[in-house]
Design goal:
The chain is α+β, with helices and mostly antiparallel strands. The chain has 15 helices and 16 strands. The chain binds adenosine-5'-triphosphate (ATP) and magnesium ion (MG).
């Protein structure tokens, strides 16, 4: 027999894990709706050129992490490393920008693929939930996005959040800063990692993003972006920070935060969390302001701001923070049929309960009462509904609370109502 392996960097999620990932996503979907975002679905693969163009030719994603291949007709295809570029492409393809009602407020959820070295919270296929505001004209759009992320994390159950913010300014500010960085690293780059050597030539800002310890020591002495922001860029950042202050959102300014993608300008931010045991998986979410991405992919120039959460990282951390809040796979009730000849009737009741919105299940085998109770317990059923000859003759079921072990007879007529009441308690 062939032994098929789980592919490196991928994972199977099942039972509680899968359930909780779904719960996280449904909470994020609900919150995004409350901020006026509408969902958008785009394909998992696009032309490789789209990502090369949008993430930036010099970004880690493009230089090292792209999952690209030629399809059977020789097209250069890439599994999306992130969802923003596809969303921008879809906005252009479908001319969604041709509306009076800007900004477009879009939310997305789906898999992203990056050929990275797998480690805790880092996979080759992972899922992102994100939002985009395209055609944003106010610093309030930036503030709203940051607040959406912050409040979402609080609602999901993070007791506190480390929100890191930086401004990488407008183009003029960044050019000035790039020149300063080049001067600073000029005589140090020789002793830095190969990636930094490449970054020095292609995009020195990215050196600040280096995760090599020795390099980080050198980076500590580098000039600060904040000293190179022009007046407009400073004002833009300060306006956002003022709103965050007013809304009680705590943040720290992180001068080294430049983010991995090329397309950002002005404000960039990341959400981090460290558990009591010291577990930290890097950023659980990140985002920023971008001015030219839509134009780069063939649309009009529209300023935008967005963020993305890494759903697996959220799940891993929430499981550690709050194991008891972690949703269980469970049933409202488990039906126990006594007597093979009654299976059809009990199955019919089972269907009725399902049609009334209850989560119920039963076995189609003729099991003993004892075996059935064991199954009900393993399936985390709150109630057992016992039905035999006698119950059928009298149009009743025996309802047993599997927590208190209390038992009573309920007429079939009242069953939905009684279950509803009991499940609310
Ligand atoms: P990192 O610095 O950890 O590599 P990134 O800057 O590359 O993150 P983004 O492109 O901003 O990440 O993606 C947004 C979020 O997606 C991240 O904050 C993280 O939570 C999640 N994420 C990114 N890469 C992975 C991955 N390989 N596996 C799981 N989650 C990921
Ligand atoms: Mg990365």
């Amino acid at each position: 027999m062939a032994n098929y392996q789980l592919q490196r960097g991928t994972y199977d999620a099942y039972y509680e894990d899968a359930l909780n990932i779904e719960k996280i996503v449904s909470i994020l979907k609900r919150i995004s709706k409350s901020y006026g975002y509408a969902p958008i679905h785009t394909p998992m693969y696009e032309q490789t050129a789209l990502f090369a163009r949008s993430a930036g030719e010099t970004s880690d994603i493009v230089t090292k992490e792209m999952f690209n291949f030629l399809d059977k007709s020789g097209r250069d295809i890439c599994l999306r490393p992130e969802l923003t570029a596809g969303v921008m492409r879809a906005i252009v393809t479908n001319k969604l920008y041709a509306t009076k009602d800007l900004p477009l407020k879009l939310s997305y959820y789906g898999s992203a693929f990056r050929y990275e070295r797998p480690q805790a919270g880092r996979y080759r296929q992972f899922n992102q939930f994100g939002i985009e505001n395209v055609g944003a004209t106010s610093y309030l759009n930036d503030a709203e996005t940051i607040i959406f992320g912050y409040n979402s994390l609080r609602i999901l159950g993070f007791p506190h959040i480390i929100l890191k913010i930086n401004s990488i300014g407008d183009e003029e500010s960044r050019n000035a800063y790039r020149t300063a960085l080049k001067e600073f690293f000029q005589n140090k780059i020789e002793n830095m990692c190969p990636d930094c050597k490449r970054r020095f030539e292609t995009n020195p800002l990215r050196i600040l993003d280096c995760k090599v310890k020795e390099d980080q020591e050198i980076i500590k002495g580098a000039p600060k972006m904040s000293d190179y922001l022009n007046e407009q860029s400073k004002e833009y950042l300060n306006n956002i920070l003022k709103v965050l202050d007013e809304q009680g959102v705590e943040y720290e300014i992180d001068d080294t935060l430049v983010r991995g993608l090329d397309y950002y300008s002005h404000v960039v931010f990341e959400y981090h969390f460290i558990t009591e045991n010291g577990t930290s998986l890097g950023a659980v979410g990140a985002g920023g302001h971008y001015d030219n991405l839509l134009r780069e992919v063939g649309g009009p120039q529209l300023s935008s701001v967005g963020l993305a959460f890494g759903v697996e990282r959220l799940n891993l951390l929430l499981k550690e923070i709050n194991p008891e809040e972690y949703a269980k796979v469970e049933l409202d009730a488990y039906l126990i049929c006594l007597g093979k000849e009654n299976l059809d009737k009990v199955f019919s009741l089972c269907t009725t309960l399902r049609n009334n919105g209850f989560n119920v299940d039963m076995s189609f085998e003729n099991k003993s009462m004892g075996a059935s109770f064991k199954i009900a317990t393993r399936k985390n059923a709150k109630f057992a509904l016992i039905i035999g000859e006698n119950e059928i003759a009298n149009n009743i079921v025996k309802l047993k609370d599997l927590n208190t072990q209390e038992q009573c007879d309920v007429s079939l007529e009242n069953l939905v109502e009684v279950l509803d009441e009991k499940l609310v308690d």
